[in-house]
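Reviewer 2 asked us to include a model.

Predict the structure of this chain.
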Amino acid sequence: MLREIRTSCPRRLSPSVKAAGIVSLMIEQWRASGYGGASARPLPALVKAMLMHTARDLGQDGPDYIYGYGEIDAKAAVD
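Predicted model (structure tokens):
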């Protein structure tokens, strides 16, 4: 499923739309791993931490005002 999104998701697509798609995949994987039932969701702080810690750093080392935490690494976040 990740491959399908990567090939059909153009670069000019809004970052928030990409992030929403990646978070939905993360939640799907979280449920498939047995952490919640069909309607359970991880805490927002957990989702944020997973995105921050799996992002590829851009620009200066660490978070900055231009790139924030960097670019979301979808594969790392979902795996």
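The chain has a mean pLDDT of 83. The helical segments are 2-8, 15-32, 44-54, 74-78. We have added this to the supplementary material.
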